[in-house]
Amino acid sequence: MPFPRSPGAREHISIDLVNSVLEFPGGKTSDALETPEAATAWLIERGLLGEGAVLRSYCRNRLVGLRRDLRDAFTAVVSGTIVDPRVLDGINAALTAAPHISTLHFGREEGFFRSLEHPTTRLVEHAMSVIAEDAAALLSGGEIGLLARCEAEPCTRFLLRTHGRRQWCSTRCGDRVRAARAYARKRKAADG
Ligand SMILES: [Zn+2]
Hints:
Layout lengths: L12 H6 L2 E4 L3 E4 L4 H10 L11 H23 L5 H12 L6 E5 L3 E5 L7 H18 L6 E3 L8 E3 L10 H21 L1
Helix pairs in contact: 3-4, 3-5, 4-5
Zinc ion binds next to loops.
């Protein structure tokens, strides 16, 4: 069952990418990028790959590497720690791997139009540069103070606190915490 996106993940593809691994109680995890096919579908769903494109496992691993770097950067933000320079190198490598400039084209029907053109071997570079661009803008911008990690353990998803002091990535996580608290209160009352 797909988990709804956390607040901010719809606007920020970098948050969406970091949140593509879900951790459930009992140590279960679910990774939306588990295989090259799954990673391909994830990118197509977000308009970062054209229909029919296929990522190879090498490309999938690079995308997972970027996710790790972004998670480390987000974690540094919410915990107030220093970012490892290797994390910055990873994000910058993704940022500069593909040009963002859309070239000019001309078609009989549509006239002039602009579009990003990438050789098929560089599809993943293009997707990664878009994600890294979003991350760079988010991390260096005014919204970064709103970044938070879901407080419903063991969930590790990130969110933007766009609505007050929101603590959870989803109502599902919030309900789980509330249920656990109610249970703890009941037990305490029964023991006391
Ligand atoms: Zn959560």
